[in-house]
Design a protein that fits this description.
Helices cover 65% and strands 10% of the residues. The chain is an alpha+beta fold.
């Protein structure tokens, strides 16, 4: 048995059988698909408006309270000396509120909200990139399966021709020819199914950048090319810097800012007023001023403060839980990646050569009349199944690579480099 993780990522025969080709203008590479999705994905476009809206929240939070103009008339339209406006006293004043730091706390909370939305946007971009990678891989897998189906059709076609020659020579019953033709029809039907799945997967891929009638007809890549994965300990060090955990830092800053804002709201605003009073009886003016300080208002906010503090503590607890979940998921994906690579390598190095030799010997024996058609079909199915199993193992390996890179927040790796 060969080493589970070696540098033998490029499996030679797959370079010929899995490299589906198409016109250059109708193809798209992995990197091109990711770039188009990040540029034009409808979900990301919608999320961009949320960021713009939060800028408006910051602008609103930084607005100072309006200064109030007051006009007050006393001792007017009474009796005696206060009839009409002769004894009136008129006061023109300006009043404003002292927020006592509340506005800055509101601005800090709004800016923390923007930082949190930006971390959410980073997660959204990563999700879009990961989903685009999955859809690209699905399309590439269907193309590889289509190539295998073409190989199966070619093999079945040669078998029909060989059986027909034996029938004409009177060495094989005509029933074998009917079986061979049925087998050919079945693999042709299977190819049709795969082709329809490929069309659907490409349409789903194009929808990632908003196209409903994709111009592309195929993707450009090769399942046989895989990156050499880093060790688990190296991958583990990247978890703390992953967008999924960095989001909790932004969330904590947001909740801290909200707590400070709520605590600041518990302090009542002081209201100042200053102005000039005109006394008609003496034709004199005087300066007036006042300050209003609400009493007992801070107790009305105690419930909100307690809630904000609990939310802040819960943020740390949620991060700890998520950290454990991410590490557990990363370990499972890493083990699955090693397993799928081991399967692909073992199949290619040990099983494929044997089934290919067995098929070649069986074909010769069939032509010499020593083996039956059933035995020939068994050998052909074994060879095709081995190639299918290798393809499936490589698809699993690429899928695990994508999920690991999405989990750790590293750049998604192209299946073809």
């Amino acid at each position: 048995m060969r080493s589970k993780l070696t540098n033998r990522w490029t499996l030679g025969w797959l370079l010929l059988t899995l490299g589906h080709t198409a016109a250059a203008e109708a193809q798209i590479s992995f990197d091109q698909a990711i770039a188009k999705a990040l540029e034009s994905n409808p979900t990301l476009t919608s999320f961009g408006y949320q960021l713009e809206a939060q800028q408006g929240v910051i602008s609103h939070a930084s607005t100072k309270p309006n200064v109030e103009l007051g006009i007050e008339v006393e001792n007017a339209f009474g009796t005696g000396p206060f009839s009409g406006l002769d004894g009136a006293e008129a006061t023109i004043s300006l009043a404003w509120s002292l927020e006592r730091g509340k506005r800055q706390h509101r601005v800090d909370a709004a800016r923390a909200g923007l930082s949190f939305l930006e971390s959410e946007a980073e997660l959204q971009r990563l999700d879009v990139a990961a989903e685009t990678g999955r859809l690209f891989l699905a399309s590439l897998a269907h193309q590889s399966q289509l190539d295998l189906a073409d190989e199966a059709i070619a093999m079945a076609g040669k078998t029909v021709a060989a059986v027909e020659r034996r029938v004409q020579a009177g060495r094989t019953p005509r029933a074998d020819l009917a079986r061979a033709e049925v087998d050919l029809a079945r693999v042709e039907l299977e190819r049709d199914h795969i082709e329809h799945r490929l069309i659907t997967s490409i349409r789903s891929l194009a929808a990632q950048w908003g196209e409903t009638r994709p111009a592309i007809t195929s993707v450009q890549g090769n399942l046989a090319e895989l990156p050499q994965p880093d060790g688990f300990k190296v991958l583990l060090t990247r978890i703390d810097q992953s967008p999924g955990l960095r989001r909790f830092l932004s969330e904590r800053r947001l909740r801290e800012a909200k707590l400070r804002s709520i605590e600041s709201d518990a302090k009542p605003d002081w209201r100042l007023m200053t102005g000039v009073r005109q006394m008609q009886l003496t034709d004199e003016q005087a300066f007036v001023a006042s300050i209003t300080i609400p009493l007992g208002a801070d107790r009305r906010n105690q419930g909100r403060v307690a809630t904000a503090r609990a939310d802040l503590a819960r943020s740390d607890a949620d991060r700890a839980v998520t950290r454990i979940q991410l590490e557990t998921r990363l370990f499972a994906l890493y083990e699955e990646l090693k397993h799928s690579l081991h399967i692909a390598t073992t199949l290619h190095d040990e099983i494929l050569p044997r089934v290919d030799r067995g098929l070649l010997e069986t074909q010769r024996a069939y032509e010499q009349g020593r083996y039956s058609y059933v035995e020939l079909r068994i050998a052909q199915n074994d060879a095709l199944r081995a190639r299918t199993d290798v393809t499936a193992a490589l698809i699993d390996a690429h899928r695990n690579v994508l999920e690991i890179e999405a989990l750790t927040g590293t750049a998604l790796t192209s299946p073809a480099r």
